[in-house]
Amino acid sequence: MEPSLDMDEALRRALERFADHRQILIALDFDGCVAELVSNAADARPVPENAAAIAALAGLDGVDVAYVSGRSLESLRELAQPPQGALLIGSHGAEKDLGEDAPGLELSTTETMSRGQIISTLEEVAADAPGAWVEHKPAGAALHVRNVEGDELGERVLEHGRAALSLIDGAYLKNGKKVLESVVVLATKGEGITDLRAHTSPDAVLFAGDDVTDEHGFAVLHGEDLGIKVGEGETAAGHRIAEPKDLAGVLHLIAQQRSAARSETRPTS
Ligand SMILES: O=P(O)(O)OC[C@H]1O[C@H](O[C@H]2O[C@H](CO)[C@@H](O)[C@H](O)[C@H]2O)[C@H](O)[C@@H](O)[C@@H]1O
């Protein structure tokens, strides 16, 4: 199915301008942006039209495609199934796969101890709250409450988690959608995008994301860059689409615009 190209005029113009740059970087958040949010985090998959558009863009000259996710690189590779050559930032910027031999995330002894404390503390909190569960991650853990009955109770469980984590040295907190994460390596998606920019030297960067941690990514955009917030909520992004399935139209328009520009410049024989 062809993705819908229905979108507001300001976004369409911004995308056409973005697509005209010689070298572009398209950086995408995964959950809630490329993939719909789902109850079980292991069931998240790219919206098929998004996956197709990402694969098409990854094959174009002058285009770098990247995922910038809170997920571990392992989970991101398994669930997002990025196309060959895609660059990956995981764990909110703490893990990187820029296509070269990069050392994996290595924790110091103190960080390893703090991570262990984070996991056991959050497991205790989750044990008292039916529906809550803990995702173990390379730099910490995430307490999930999407399946806790009722928003208010879910909020109370997260609050309990925050209070318990405040007693652990070196445990940094990150709030997300129905999730509280605690990490021992402080990194942001902004740093991830800055690393990607240094690696790919684009003339312009597009970043799309839906969650509060994505605001760090929007904050490092400048000049000809383009930020797209997916869904509701306050944002520093300049543009907005309603839901993950609308991303396909955005990506498709960029691909279309670049193909049109190439055929215009191709010499006729
Ligand atoms: O930066 P992202 O790629 O958006 O990753 C952020 C977190 O996403 C996952 O949790 C979120 O998505 C789940 C699946 O839809 C949903 O059940 C959960 O409520 C959301 O918070 C993932 O599990 C986390 O590790 C990521 O940090």
From TrEMBL:
Record keywords, A-Z: Hydrolase, Magnesium, Metal-binding
Pfam families to which the protein is assigned, alphabetical: Trehalose_PPase
Domain of life: Bacteria
Cofactor entry: Mg(2+)
GO molecular function: metal ion binding; trehalose-phosphatase activity
Catalytic activity, as annotated: alpha,alpha-trehalose 6-phosphate + H2O = alpha,alpha-trehalose + phosphate
Pathway: Glycan biosynthesis; trehalose biosynthesis
EC identifiers of the protein: 3.1.3.12
Gene Ontology biological-process entries: trehalose biosynthetic process
InterPro entries hit by this protein: HAD-like_sf, HAD_sf, OTSB-like, Trehalose_PPase
Role, per record: Removes the phosphate from trehalose 6-phosphate to produce free trehalose.
NCBIfam families, A to Z: T6PP
Family statement drawn from the similarity comment of this UniProt entry: Belongs to the trehalose phosphatase family.
Name used for this protein in its record: Trehalose 6-phosphate phosphatase
Organism encoding this protein: Nesterenkonia aurantiaca
